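Entry for the shared binder. Reason: the reviewer on the internal report wants the predicted structure included alongside the sequence.
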Amino acid sequence: MAKAVFHKHQRVFVKPVGTWALIEKVKPHWVKGVEEPVRIAYDCGLGRDFQSAELSEEEIEDPETGRWRLMRAKNKWQSPDECAHHPFPGSFPIVVTDEQDWGGWRVPGAEYDRDPQLIEYQARLLASAPTLMKLAEKMEALDQGADPLPEGLRSLVEVAKTTLKRIRSRPSDTSDKDTRAA
């Protein structure tokens, strides 16, 4: 039995012709008495139908997030004695997202002083974000398999897909309702 590899309006490279094209129609070939199509052809508007072996999908560049890491910066405005109640007196966390140890996330000193435990937790969470995103992408890939997922795992996969959709969309693509729910 055949499964569709490509979908309508997907951009593919047509190897025999040596050009890029959009799939205009997905054409399953049915046989009487069989529940699934025997083979699937793709109409790319180039004069004949192509099989999946003759097509290749466009590779989407996955932006490399790099190695995010948690660093500590010296507190310029308070001495270690003045902030003895902080988890790490005399310093505050920064999440560095660039190889040259600059760029990333920092918190104002006054905000850190208000709730240092919360800011430390947020810093660890932010530094772990690329790893958590890769985990969500692997969970999203589970949904592509032919086997049905158990209900508990299915709900986790849906949460991963929704989260990745929010991450990948531009701010103008989301409604205010979606933003408030996050």
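Summary line for the report: The CA atoms of residues 135 and 160 lie 9 Å apart.
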